[in-house]
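User: Let's play a game. I give you a shape written as tokens, and you guess the letters that built it. Ready? Here's round one.
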């Protein structure tokens, strides 16, 4: 085949060519909602898995994500602006994704992608 594009994350893993693409695992979707902006929340994830995060366009909330906490700036690893889509890879040995919305009531959908 020709005219195919392959992208890699910073660890050399192949990732989808566009953040809105990807091959999701059926029934893996999770909806997260933050009714208390600025508070650290957690969601259980699969260590080493790749996830697509889609910020809900109707809630107007940007999100911070981390693997230890989101209470301090040093622990924020990913930022998803309002109305965006982000693809992340959970590090090995990590099973909790920490998150917080920058606006009360912000919500997002998390979908695991096939490796």
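Assistant: Ready! My guess for every position:
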């Amino acid at each position: 085949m020709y005219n195919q594009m392959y992208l890699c994350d910073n660890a050399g893993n192949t990732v989808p060519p566009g953040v809105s693409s990807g091959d999701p695992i059926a029934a893996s979707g999770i909806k997260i909602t933050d009714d208390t902006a600025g508070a650290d929340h957690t969601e259980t994830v699969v260590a080493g898995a790749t996830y697509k995060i889609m910020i809900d366009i109707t809630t107007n909330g940007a999100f911070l994500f981390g693997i230890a906490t989101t209470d301090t700036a040093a622990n924020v690893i990913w930022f998803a602006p309002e109305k965006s889509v982000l693809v992340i890879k959970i590090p090995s040995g990590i099973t909790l994704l920490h998150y917080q919305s920058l606006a009360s009531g912000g919500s997002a959908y998390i979908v695991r992608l096939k490796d």
